[in-house]
Write a structure and sequence with these properties.
Number of helices of chain A: 5
Number of domains of chain A: 2
Number of helices of chain B: 17
Largest sheet of chain B: none
Strand content of chain A: 5-15%
Oligomer: heterodimer
Helix content of chain B: over 70%
CATH class of chain B: Mainly Alpha
Shape of chain B: globular
Order of helices and strands of chain A: EHEHHHEHE
CATH architecture of chain B: Up-down Bundle
Number of domains of chain B: 1
Shape of chain A: rod-shaped
Number of strands of chain B: 0
Distance between the termini of chain A: 11 Å
Radius of gyration of chain B: 24 Å
Strand order of the largest sheet of chain A: 2-3-1-4
Number of strands of chain A: 4
Radius of gyration of chain A: 26 Å
């Protein structure tokens, strides 16, 4: 039997969530959901894990702090200490207050850009990538739930469609794959 | 879905569907621009071209063509720089700080406010660049290995802090803005029918899918970026104020400068947002999304920050007397009664007195009055920087060096030119970019939309 992809189109995020809940409780695995804006509360229903991008940002930020302090120490303390009005320039910690602004800015710079680049790569959203949403209406006003028969050996395509028909579904499309 | 208290005024007026929101924003991009747009664009680009000519003349001749001199060595250039950076504070404040506070009214205005921020920061960065005189050596501000021995930039200097602050602020704001734009570019990509437009918006949308995981990441990135952009916004104008506060010039050498500059920046930034949005909502028929309530909220921010600025002015004045430092008190007496008294009183009346009128609800919900006030505040904030810079410098410790500053036609041309370039960029944005954050506005439609709120209220009655 050829594998099938079923696209259940909804008009409202709440109706889609109810539909997803119903399918998941009957043991159907929902492959993905495409929507024009984030549907809050959907992730736990279809089993999307929390993203670790926040941790990534923190790591990049800490790297930025260290790089900034290392650089400033090398430039202004080690390689070419400047004596300005007799102010201390012989140790990083003595001169630290004056170095805080640049350290802070560089931390933010690395945290923001490091996270943004990771985000774009992980989402596979990069310049020149083709659009990969199954239906152009998902960026406008439709919410689409994707169910694959290959993930659901316990249920036939007809059974899944039957379950979907009991929800507030707007339209159901099937495709071979 | 959580529901919202009925007492809260709706943020989207009339009966809109998700598709209506898409059509209202994508329609103007796809169709021919209205005649008014061409008129404004011609005007703006002529001014921009004249300004660019003035900048090129300045670079080829040197900064002697400006009116500044040995005593007043910072004048319009730094006044304009601080003015533009200040204006560039509203966008990130709206999108970052108001996101952390979960203020839904930000969603209709953050996209255009951020665009304004980015263009304003570009204009701001122009001024220190051309003030260097030899702009081709501007890479000297970076810590690069060089042929002058072990000579590095000085990390003790607030001018260098400024380089890092402004460039970080600009690039982070740009990324924050673009990440929000990607899903909306995808909406345009999927909606338009002209093949050329489909291709261009396809490239701009980076192949956005809008699947569940992508949205989870999107929200996390927005939240974290807002979290780190918030201290960034406050740091940028604090660092700008350090350029003054760490010097020993009377009138500059005060610890109140960072909070005073930051609130002044928010004040002028919101005024500029009002100026631009009031025109845009009218021309592009966005009255249903940018409502009177939005305008009122922004006016409330203006009155709060304007009052903080007023308190700062009066504190400065008081301390100059209370400190007992002759030079400090002379600087302030000279500001109010010296040859530049008119700029001081222009600043006081535009920034401190006139925003107080917004205590009247009738006035702060009146669109024509708000537009008028937004211009007044922009003028007042320009004078604030002029007062701080020129009146403090023109009479220094040595009376033999006292002088006046007279702008030349190049000073005027460069300043007008930046307004022209800024307007050109903003008009291009309004024509080709989604001016509302579509994905965000859609997400609040069923909670804060007028007809949905009415439905919910009726539902409760029965």
């Amino acid at each position: 039997m050829a594998n099938k992809v079923i696209y259940a189109v909804y008009e409202d995020p709440e109706q889609l969530k109810d539909g997803a809940r119903k399918l998941v409780s009957s043991g159907v695995r929902v492959k993905d959901v495409f929507s024009p804006f984030p549907v809050h509360g959907l992730d736990p229903i279809i089993g999307v894990k929390r993203t670790r991008l926040g941790i990534v940002s923190f790591m990049f930020g800490i790297t930025g702090t260290c790089l900034a302090l290392l650089g400033i120490w090398y430039f202004n303390i080690f390689d070419w200490p400047m004596n300005i009005g007799g102010k201390p320039s012989q140790a990083l910690y003595k001169n630290l207050p004056a170095f805080i602004p640049v350290t802070f800015e560089f931390t933010v710079l690395c945290a923001a850009h490091g996270m943004a680049i990771t985000y774009l790569i992980r989402n596979k959203t990069l310049p020149g990538m083709p659009a990969r949403n199954p239906d152009p209406r998902t960026t406008d006003d439709k919410f689409i739930m994707e169910v694959r028969t290959a993930d659901n050996h316990g249920h036939s395509a007809e059974a899944i469609v039957g379950m979907l028909c009991e929800t507030h579904v707007f339209e159901i499309n099937e495709r071979q794959c | 879905m959580h529901s919202e208290a009925a007492i809260r005024e709706p943020l989207i007026l009339g009966h809109k569907t998700y598709a209506d929101i898409t059509n209202d924003i994508v329609g103007p991009i796809e169709n021919k621009a209205p005649r008014g747009w061409y008129v404004l664009m011609t005007l703006a680009s002529l001014v921009a071209a004249y300004g660019t000519g003035c900048i090129l003349y300045l670079i080829s001749k040197g900064i002697g063509v400006w009116g500044l001199n040995k005593t007043v060595d910072w004048a319009w250039d730094i006044t304009n720089f601080v003015w533009w950076v200040g204006i560039g504070h509203a966008g990130t404040l709206i999108s970052a700080v108001l996101l952390l506070f979960r203020q839904k009214w930000r969603m209709a205005i953050n996209r255009s406010a951020e665009a304004m921020t980015i263009f304003a920061v570009i204009m701001a960065a122009t001024f220190p660049g051309i003030h260097m005189g030899r702009i081709w050596m501007s890479y000297w501000v970076l810590p690069l290995p060089n042929q002058f021995g072990s000579l590095w930039v000085n990390f003790n200097s607030p001018l260098l802090w400024d380089v890092f602050a402004i460039s970080t602020y600009f690039s982070v704001s740009l990324v924050f803005w673009y990440i929000g734009l990607i899903p909306d570019f995808a909406t345009i990509r999927d909606k338009v029918s002209k093949p050329m437009m489909k291709k261009v918006y396809g490239i701009l949308s980076f192949g956005w899918t809008g699947n569940a995981k992508a949205w989870t990441r999107f929200e996390e990135v927005s939240l974290v970026l807002a979290g780190i952009a918030t201290p960034l916004v406050f740091s940028v104008h604090s660092v700008v104020s350090f350029d003054f506060a760490t010097s020993v010039i009377p009138g500059w050498h005060t610890t109140i400068f960072p909070p005073y500059f930051v609130s002044g920046a928010v004040f002028s930034g919101f005024a500029m947002v009002q100026t631009l949005l009031l025109i845009m909502r009218k021309v592009m028929h966005l009255e249903a999304y940018i409502t009177k309530k939005h305008i009122e909220y922004m006016n409330i921010v203006i009155i709060v920050t304007g009052s903080i600025v007023g308190v700062a002015y009066i504190t400065e004045l008081f301390i100059s007397w209370y400190s007992g430092v002759e030079y400090e008190s002379y600087a302030f007496i000279n500001r109010a009664t010296g040859p530049y008294w008119w700029s001081y009183w222009a600043m006081m009346s535009c920034n401190v007195i006139s925003p107080q009128l917004f205590w009247f609800k009738k006035l702060r919900t009146n669109l024509a009055f708000t537009f008028f006030m937004s211009i007044i505040v922009n003028i007042g904030m320009w004078f604030e920087r002029f007062v701080i810079i020129v009146t403090s410098l023109h009479r220094d410790y040595m009376p033999s060096a006292w002088t006046m500053f007279h702008p030349t036609w190049v000073d005027v041309g460069v300043f007008l030119g930046t307004i022209g370039i800024f307007s050109t960029l903003y008009l291009l944005f309004a024509r080709y970019f989604p001016v509302l954050a579509l994905n965000e506005v859609k997400s609040i439609l069923k909670v804060s939309g007028e007809s949905y709120k009415q439905q919910a209220a009726q539902h409760h009655h029965h």
